[in-house]
What we know:
The complex is a heterodimer.
Chain A: E1 4-9, H1 17-24, E2 30-34, E3 54-59, H2 62-72, E4 84-87
Antiparallel strand pairs in A: 1-3, 1-4, 2-3
Chain B: E1 7-8, E2 15-18, E3 38-47, E4 56-64, H1 67-84, E5 95-103, H2 106-118, E6 121-125, E7 130-135
Parallel strand pairs in B: 2-5
Antiparallel strand pairs in B: 1-2, 3-4, 3-5, 4-7, 6-7
Amino acid sequence: MEGVRLFVGGLDYRADKRDLQALFSAAGRVVDVYTPFREGEGPGTGRKPRNKGYAFVEMGSMSEAALAVDLLDGTKGPYGRVVSVMEAEARRTR
Amino acid sequence: MSGTTPRILGAEDKVSIVNVSKPRHAECHSLEESRAFQPWEVDLRLRMNAVDPREHSTFYYVRARDQGHAWTLAFSMFHRWEKVEKGIGDSMYPDVVGAVLTVMDEQEWDFAWKCAKRHLHKKAGMDANPSCFTIMEAVKI
């Protein structure tokens, strides 16, 4: 079964995959975490990675995703920044 | 429910567990429905201020994979509903000083949810079958 993808906004730029995994595991099974890095940073560049201020977290089921939104939206996330959590929109095809 | 001797998780956890039965879905990792989680009644013990030494109870009903998860979920939702949403997120009181976790069966869970809906309540998760709920009044189901 495919997971349910959530958008996480307002993320501190230092937050990484592990921070989000730990945060969202309170709501259930975390299938995948995607944190886009800023250009020229991240693995292989020799520069300290910083994310773009948002991330996508895939939860195991609809109920876990709904709980994650209710539990985490508008609360303090990694490094004390308030994060917004909502269901991600499907990618638009061009 | 099967009755067993209360078990203390650890002094630092301040959590005691009573009536622990083996979760029926312990091996279930593909959770299509929240019903795959074991229902728990979490009795959070609160201290309301620095002067009054009495502990007050507030009951949270959660579906969780184990007792640690149940405690985390109940505590997080308590913080959100009773402190952050009331604008007292940074204040120390009411302070959770402990918790008693009790395993529920599906009938008890359904009954609790039915009762909660009749009162002023909060819920998290899906509307039809929430993952966590509580009654915002002093009601013991």
